[in-house]
TrEMBL record, chain A:
This is Family with sequence similarity 114 member A2. Belongs to the FAM114 family. InterPro entries: DUF719. PANTHER family: FI01459P, PROTEIN FAM114A2. Residues 17-34, 51-72 have a biased composition (Basic and acidic residues).
Amino acid sequence: MSGKDGTETPVIAETSRTLEDGNCESDKNSESVDHSAMPESESELAASTGRRPEVKPSSDLETSKVQETVSKEETQTGWGYWGSWGKSLLSSASATVATVGQGISSVIEKAESSLGIPSPSEISSEVKVAAAETNTRENEDSSLGAGPFGVFSTISTAVQSTGKSVIAGGLDALEFIGKKTMDVIAEGDPGFKRTKGLMNRNATLSQVLREAKEKEELWTSNEVTMETDKNTHYGLLFDEFQGLSHLEALEMLSQESEIKVRSVLNSLSGDELETLKLELEQLKEAFSLAEFCDEEEEEKKGDEDFTKEVTELFSQLHVSTKPEKLTRARNTAYEWIKAVPAKTLAENKEEEKQLEGGNTEEVSKNSIEDIHAFAIRSLAELTACSIELFHKTAALVLHGQRQNVTAIERSQTLSQVTVVLCKELSFLSREFTTSLTTVGVKEKTDSLNPLITAVFLEASNSASYIQDAFQLLLPVLELSLIENRTESPTHELQVQKPLAQQ
Amino acid sequence: MEAIWLYQFRLIVIGDSTVGKSCLIRRFTEGRFAQVSDPTVGVDFFSRLVEIEPGKRIKLQIWDTAGQERFRSITRAYYRNSVGGLLLFDITNRRSFQNVHEWLEETKVHVQPYQIVFVLVGHKCDLDTQRQVTRHEAEKLAAAYGMKYIETSARDAINVEKAFTDLTRDIYELVKRGEITIQEGWEGVKSGFVPNVVHSSEEVVKSERRCLC
């Protein structure tokens, strides 16, 4: 596995990391995953990489230029902007195919063919089907905890069964996601399909998301829907918080940087080129997000800690932008959740006294829908804020004042930021689902579980958007590394000046 | 329903740094005036719906660019995908008025092959006592470039609505007359979603009548 070179190396490395993650859970389990996964994932991967360069239906001059250079780059190093997209996508794709098999892919297929984002009930019913299809396999594996499959099977069990004890299973799954955000990219059904579609259609992430949003718009305007209905459409909300625009702007910076980096590489030769390539290689390593298996850090942290952690990480980046908007949005979300159970419990009690049963369900039904709507809104807002931060960081890395921090240090910090953000999203989604469970205690599972599933799905989508946006920063930091190299003599002069004055 | 609009226009706001671009946009989109604001990094985004005729809404997507020179290479890239623009100068800062030529020259180079409908905005008109640019010379300059001229104040909320809605109306007219068309791969004008058929057929009837005249 390690002996491969060229295009496949990074991809396989990624796949193996996913599998190693499985190891953290239980040895017995990951073994079974290992055996079935390896051959399939490799063939899937080879097929995909082989297929990709053929798809060149570009009308735009610019894109075709990019594509040309991409295929060239692929044969050379297998990295670069598009290359790394391929890397993360392929690995997640192959992991899913290998471990999940037909069941889940049919879910994904159907979900995509219906709408940009399928309704929660739709997903849940599909998951039910998937669960039935993959039941045999699940029994063989006899596990809920390992690999991407584990998450889904847990959730499908939750959907299938009735009674409250099941929800605990669903929450376990969400807890599990915290450790496995990398794997989750694959299962975040609509998002995964969107990103997978990106590979086939040569579209950018923002284009894909824009299309999904437009589908939602079309749908909401055709259907005579209530205002509240619109409030649960992640895509529309993400755009409302300017997430799409920031993503588009980030993509522009990323593409420009990519072109510049390439032209620099083309202009170099011999030792100079080799040293630079080596440095760029180190930078890429910082972008590989390896630290999702931290058991210790998983424990719940105080409310203040996220704000503190993110603020500190941003000060390490030495860019003038501050994550206040993000931390504010996050804290608002937490305050809201905290206020929820108390309020509804009080309401319920009063209601019970006055009306004795009957209407109480009405009250709590509104409440779980409120929580669901707020959860989706918060996830969309936090994701948009995160992407805005990445966009601002890119602009400042390229055009800010020169700082005493290397591109590699910045990459490492940004990688940590990404991990923190994704963990926070999974934690937040767990808070929301806990809240849903508490408030919807009298609900039928049929109405409660789809909402829980939807929150979980959008949380994993959010995490994958953030990780994709993070990958867009790679060319930006590559360019910054190159510029720092060439400008270092003048930089030294500037440092010496004050000394001479003394 | 709120989410429904006929078109989406992308507008760009440009001009020297500290002329008040972000404050003007915030007043328009958020209805408040921010006393202190950090310089814009690269570009920021805002959006708002504008009702140009009863029941007819346009969604404005506003790109707030950084005025600082160091971000110029970023902001240049945004002209191409805008249908309209507000070119701001500060009436208390002569230099920012003199730079209007430069801004227009720059956009001309980078907007090809499309066009942007610009309005010239003399901002901070509440500070009339510190005025360094007369209304007359600003109007003359605007006319020379075929632009409208308007004076605004974000602090006192003077003409802020008018600046944006007049520009939106002008663009809407051009779109209706077919002088600006929706194009694949261009983000300047996008078609929105019309909720019922009656609405759009009414549209067709109107434009036919227009043709006969």
